């Protein structure tokens, strides 16, 4: 469906924001994970035809989106990170405005989308009273007006409370049944339960692209738990990769990424996805 071939984006002579990324994506939720500045937004903007690769190609159903961007735009929904709503208009008016811009004439579609994002009861309220989560859901409804095949959502859960996060996550999971939904985040738990694949970006490069299960499988045997005293903790901090340290009285309960048992009494632990990604990062660094 969507294929990235050696996509690179440079800003000026020195900055490579996206560095030779190749990916092949189909329907389902893809989590694009990376720290601030990793290149997620730049990559999404290129997929959304808002920026052009400096080199490489992005193909949608085999056609280069740079050659006919309007064909891609017709099949795309995009919710940018800094999505804003005119606060004095209602959700309904906002949707009607964008429906007119996008040439969507069916008023029932607006109603259905407001129901899908659970804003139908609030449709006539001014958006000035909306919470961050409600605004984000309105953003998704807007992005779905043209019934896109690809939905690109940049950092959708930033600033949301846990309940809104969960609601938003479920909505994206539902949409991923028949669309390609690309969601960027730096919070692994936001996508770990819904993403069929995780694309990990680091310094503009694609560090890995795999299923959560495969990422977990690679980390098994490398994540340890141990309870140690303060001196041993200091030693381990210098000699291993400590993933987590919890003080418990005189002892420190540790989770450690290490290729073999890091200290006497250490036990192999089942990694969380976050730990697996960190363990993978360390393993790559050690191998380099
Ligand atoms: N228009 C631009 N001009 C110059 N540099 C840019 C531009 N857009 C992004 N960058 C740089 O490219 C790199 C990648 O930025 P990008 O916003 O894509 O990262 P990100 O992973 O989305 O980060 P965040 O989570 O903070 O949004 C950063 O070093 C950023 O400063």
UniProtKB/TrEMBL annotation:
Membership in a protein family: Belongs to the ABC transporter superfamily.
Name of the protein in its database record: ATP-binding cassette domain-containing protein
InterPro entries attached to this UniProt entry: AAA+_ATPase (IPR003593), ABC_transporter-like_ATP-bd (IPR003439), ABC_transporter-like_CS (IPR017871), P-loop_NTPase (IPR027417)
UniProt xrefs under PROSITE patterns: ABC_TRANSPORTER_1 (PS00211), ABC_TRANSPORTER_2 (PS50893)
Domain called ABC transporter: residue spans: 2-228
Gene Ontology molecular-function annotations: ATP binding; ATP hydrolysis activity
Secretion signal, residue range per the UniProt entry: none
A Pfam entry, by short name: ABC_tran
């Amino acid at each position: 469906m969507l294929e990235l071939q050696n996509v690179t984006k440079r800003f000026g002579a020195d900055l490579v924001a996206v560095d030779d990324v190749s990916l092949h994506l189909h329907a389902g939720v893809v989590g694009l994970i990376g720290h601030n500045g990793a290149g997620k937004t730049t990559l999404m903007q290129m997929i959304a035809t808002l920026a052009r690769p400096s080199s490489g190609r992005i193909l949608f159903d085999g056609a280069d989106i740079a050659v006919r961007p309007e064909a891609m735009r017709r099949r795309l929904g995009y919710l940018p990170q800094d999505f804003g709503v005119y606060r004095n208009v209602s959700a309904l008016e906002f949707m009607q405005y964008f429906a007119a811009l996008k040439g969507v004439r069916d008023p029932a579609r607006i109603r259905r989308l407001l129901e899908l994002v659970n804003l139908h009861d609030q449709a006539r309220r001014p958006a000035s009273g909306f919470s961050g989560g409600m605004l984000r859901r309105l953003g998704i409804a807007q992005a779905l007006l043209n019934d896109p095949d690809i939905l690109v959502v940049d950092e959708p859960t930033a600033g949301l409370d846990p309940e809104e996060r969960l609601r938003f996550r479920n909505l994206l999971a539902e949409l991923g049944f028949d669309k390609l939904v690309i969601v960027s985040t730096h919070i692994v738990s936001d996508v770990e339960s819904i993403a069929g694949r995780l694309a990990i970006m680091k310094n503009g490069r694609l560090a890995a692209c795999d299923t959560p299960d495969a990422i977990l499988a690679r980390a098994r045997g490398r994540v340890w738990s141990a309870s140690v005293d303060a001196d041993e903790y200091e030693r381990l901090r210098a000699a291993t990769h400590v993933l987590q340290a919890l003080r418990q009285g005189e002892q420190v309960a540790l989770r450690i990424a290490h290729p073999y048992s890091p200290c006497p009494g250490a036990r192999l632990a089942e990694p969380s996805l976050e730990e697996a990604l960190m363990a993978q990062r360390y393993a790559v660094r050690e191998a380099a």
